[in-house]
Amino acid sequence: QGQLVESGGGLVQAGGSLRLSCAGPWSIFSFSTMGWYRQAPEKQRELVATMSLGGYTNYADSVKGRFTISRDNAKNTVYLQMNSLQPEDTAVYYCNSDRQSPRRVYWGQGTQVTVSS
């Protein structure tokens, strides 16, 4: 049921900011931990940040203090505010929904973020 759709990617200079958003239907957004993952060239996909329905957050060490995940349950949308971007942040960013009991995982199509030095 439904689909996760990311937006907000683009090209920015080092030190700049971007805000990614991911929207999905209520049926897969609610009752789920929402998250952002990324995959850089020649690298495996890695966790960036997650946020549970209750507001618990988890961040990769590489983005802690620079990125902020948030969610608007009324809009069925999760955001990733990315500040102080570095070239190492260049990757395709994927939205993720992970629900337990029953377990259901959904992925967005990805949005490209490119940071130039």
Architecture overview:
- By secondary structure, the protein is mainly β.
- The chain contains one helix and eleven strands; from the N terminus they run E-E-E-H-E-E-E-E-E-E-E-E.
- Strands 2, 4, 5, 6, 9, 10 and 11 form a seven-stranded mixed beta sheet that branches. Strands 1-3-8-7 form a four-stranded antiparallel beta sheet, with no helix packed on it.
- A hairpin with a 4-residue loop joins strand 9 and strand 10.
- The chain is globular and about 45 Å long.
- It starts with a strand and ends with a strand.
- The model has no long low-confidence stretch (mean pLDDT 94).
Topology:
Elements: E1 5-7, E2 10-13, E3 18-23, H1 26-29, E4 32-39, E5 46-51, E6 57-59, E7 67-72, E8 77-82, E9 91-99, E10 104-107, E11 111-116
Parallel strand pairs: 2-11
Antiparallel strand pairs: 1-3, 3-8, 4-5, 4-9, 5-6, 7-8, 9-10, 9-11
Gist?
The protein is mainly beta and 117 residues long.
Strand content: over 45%
Mean pLDDT: 94
Summarize the main sheet: 7 strands, mixed
Helical amount among residues, as a percent range? under 10%
- Overall geometry comes to globular
Counting DSSP H or I runs of 4 or more residues, the number of helices is 1
Give the helices and strands as they follow along the chain.
EEEHEEEEEEEE
Low-confidence stretches: none
How many distinct beta strands? 11
